[in-house]
């Protein structure tokens, strides 16, 4: 990336920050603006910024972003609170998510996309995670009952890490089906990725929690350095797993989960730092998406790809989520609200880019183009609908104070760094 591109991007970040509060009341979201900004300055339109995913700096930026997001998403979810208070995201993750992958696989096989079984399953798994940042108005709106917005918040925080082992597994099977050499290499590779990554992540997360707890309690750790420490923990888990043949992204997610649930000294500044840095990196990744990835995929997105994208955002997501919520005592508008707000974003983009670099399958290009088309549609559809839908739904449920939706639950931080609190306090 040259100096001119760097200056243009920096100016864009500054200008967005200046008007960010005014934009909160508009239908325009950060991911939407930065994707459009990237498309504008990239080679497809003005060509004033040379951004290529193959460039070392750009690739490294995307890699660090995924590591930090996986770690911080997992670290902010208190599993004990989830088990006690939050049955809705548990249903959506344990019942809805597997059904989403199954439905996505069946649709991928039914449409003439030229995908085999494992390639269709890989596509479905890549698009299973959701990104609450694309509909931030929903998870941040005080009009939406805490139980509902936290269901979406928790689902988004955990489903990317849960989907990643399946993505790796399906990628290995897809590559194995087309391997021209000894397939045992892919079996060994997949087994090491899925087993060593979690082991390293658990060890790093537990050790870091004990170390930071002791340092904070003894007064050795300055508050200003708590933030950089979380970057070190996430990157150490990633690098440690990669060094021994495990998957660094799985390690980062597991490290975040173990660290967040084991650390006793609740270092508020530490998590706020990670959220701030992660938020900037996320916006830059959407800029990269608009500048370098979207134009490349646009010319290959035929009618069947677009149809899959539409179905992925509607029936493939909404029917399984509705099934998972049967018996939860929710009203139909609530089920529809939870089913619709499953935006696809950062995790799907980066999973597709990093996993398909390794996969040796003829369907890799189709998978990538379909993921890009789905994310692009989601940025628009969920971004534009988030604020109006949150207002409509909040007013509807606000008239029914005794509804199950309005039950008080313990809140956990969203990806904008909100501190945990109990609804209604």
Care to describe what's here?
The protein is mostly helical and 425 residues long. The protein has one domain (29-409): Na+/H+ antiporter like fold (Up-down Bundle). Helix content is 72%, strand content 1%. It is built from 17 helices and 2 strands. The chain has helices at 3-23, 30-41, 56-75, 79-85, 87-110, 117-126, 136-140, 146-177, 184-218, 226-243, 248-262, 268-298, 303-313, 315-324, 332-340, 346-358, 364-398; strands at residues 410-411, 421-422. A two-stranded antiparallel sheet has the order 1-2. Helix 3 (56-75) crosses helix 8 (146-177). It is globular and about 50 Å long. Mean pLDDT is 84; it is low at 417-425.
Helix-strand layout with pairing:
Elements: H1 3-23, H2 30-41, H3 56-75, H4 79-85, H5 87-110, H6 117-126, H7 136-140, H8 146-177, H9 184-218, H10 226-243, H11 248-262, H12 268-298, H13 303-313, H14 315-324, H15 332-340, H16 346-358, H17 364-398, E1 410-411, E2 421-422
Antiparallel strand pairs: 1-2
Keywords:
globular, 425 residues, Na+/H+ antiporter like fold, mainly alpha, two-stranded antiparallel sheet
| Count of structural domains | 1
Quaternary state of the chains:
single chain
Order of helices and strands: HHHHHHHHHHHHHHHHHEE
Mean pLDDT: 84
Largest sheet: 2 strands, antiparallel
Strand neighbour order, sheet with most strands: 1-2
Tell me the CATH architecture: Up-down Bundle
Number of DSSP-assigned strands: 2
